[in-house]
Amino acid sequence: MKKKLKKLSCLFTLILLAGCDKYLEETPDNRVDLNTPEKAAQLLTSAYSIASYSFTEWMSDNVAFTFGTTKRLEQNQAYSWSEVTSIEQDTPATYWTYSYDAISHANEVLAVIDDLPGEKRLKDAIKGEAYLTRAYAHFMLVNLFAKHYDPQTASQDPGIPYVEEPETQFVKTYTRDTIEDVYDKIEDDLEDGLDLVDGSFYANSGKYHFTRNAALAFASRFYLFKGDADNCIKYSSEMLGADPLGFVKDISGLLEQSANPDDFVRRYTSPNDPSNLLMMRNITNTNVSVGYWPDDQLLSQIYDSNPFDESDIRTSNEYPIYVLGTNGRSLAKFEFLFERSSLTSNVGLNYTIITALKGEEVLLNRAESYVYKNQLNLALADLQLYVSKRYENNPTVTLPLLQTHYGANNNQLNTLSFILDERRKEFMHEGLRWFDIKRYGIQVRHRLEDGSTITLEQDDLRKVLQIPQAAIDVGGLEPNPR
Q: In the predicted model, is pLDDT for residue 8 greater than 50?
């Protein structure tokens, strides 16, 4: 179904004109006949981008110069904060391409779903999922290819095109909505999706779709990034319920149950783990020995520093850590998977299953929002739950401990610093550190092979990824300033 749909669409050339040679072989109205809700639901499986934003990890302070690994063009460009000209997998251009491709599938469904025969409850559930996938794809795009949301400037800052209709013409130019407009449209879609989403129709594949819990986790991230602490707390609390600890992965328990590292990774990424809220298949080289990774020194700097003088379970002797190249280190988080191009082929694509939304993020989002409101006792309560599953001997989080560790004469600042450190540890290799670097203007320094260093300053324009060249040349979009 997806291949047939691509023959007529090509997603307004912002998708780098992928497959456009086939466009001319078909008449514009030779679309997939979405005449049942079941077909619409099937098409929505393509409304989740298969592209990885792992390139943000190479730009972050989570990596060192890794000796002995193959370094592709896009990895070298990302590590040095140069414009990534490659359009291979694990690049900004590919993420842009497949995100708008996902949006196009959501729009195809939304255009027809109300007029299809069938049970209203099923159609509403499909519509809710389509709204959520469209909102999520735009949200990720605007946070990569535009500035972080600033209420003082969002009405003037350029965002991205927010596409709400199916493509009906071959070459179409678009304009960039402001960040404020993009966020407003995301919020509308998010609220509509929350009203309608119903995961009971997903049978045994629920966490590969937006369930209500996944939608609430997305709302938690959305409102945190928007700076709306009240709504972040509201949606986080609804998702976490009366037992937030149940949504924090029990790493010690998984290690005890696992026979070997591969078994651990399968358990870590299992849809059966309550902390994993939304699973996505990503085509990526991230899980193989290429590119840039932290080394022992950096891992020690990140994980050994804590206010408690206790061991971090995530880098304990029991936790599997792979050696990549000669000095690269990778915490076991991703299952190595390979898709052959055909049954008899020895070539194909590396891929893995990622957890796009996690319970731990929601708990830390809520704690951060409590800090914004200076409700530090509530923030500490959330952090205590989290710490109980990440450090040996369940240490107690207190304001004096945080002040001693961070040294600031400001309890809010010390608590926020702890949260950002824990977010960095929790989402190592997962790409989310980059968004905290943007949100808080964190300086990043990278060491080069010869021992010299390069620096990405707090307000460096390169923290906003450049719009892909094809979207500038053919789609008519204005590039980001440099």
A: no
At residue 124, what is the residue type?
A: D
* 17, pLDDT greater than 70: no
pTM of model > 0.90: yes
- The Cα 157–Cα 174 span in angstroms is 16
C-alpha closest to that of 436 among 317, 353, 428: 428
Q: Which two tokens stand for residue 401?
A: 């401990």
- Has residue 366 got a pLDDT over 70? yes
- b/e per residue, 373-411, with b = 16+ CB within 10 A? eeebeebbebbbbbbbbbbeeebebeeebbbebbeeeeb
Tell me the CATH number of domain 1-54+90-205+443-482, given options 3.40.190.170, 1.25.40.890, 3.40.50.1000, 1.10.10.60.
Answer: 1.25.40.890
Question: What is the C-alpha separation between 331 and 165, in angstroms, rounded?
Answer: 41
| Separation of alpha carbons 306 and 312, rounded Å | 9
Position 275: which residue type?
S
CATH of domain 211-441: 1.25.40.390
Dihedral through CA 414, CA 419, CA 421, CA 423, nearest 10? Answer: -170
Which residues of the chain are in CATH 1.25.40.390 domains? Answer: 211-441
**Helix (H), strand (E), coil (C) string for 356-368:** EEEHHHHHHHHHH
Average pLDDT over residues 414-423: 98
CB 197, CB 132: distance < 8 Å: yes
pLDDT at 173 (0 to 100): 76
Query: Which segments of the chain belong to CATH 1.25.40.890?
Result: 1-54+90-205+443-482
Q: What does the pLDDT look like over 29-48, one tens digit per residue?
A: 444 578 999 999 999 999 99
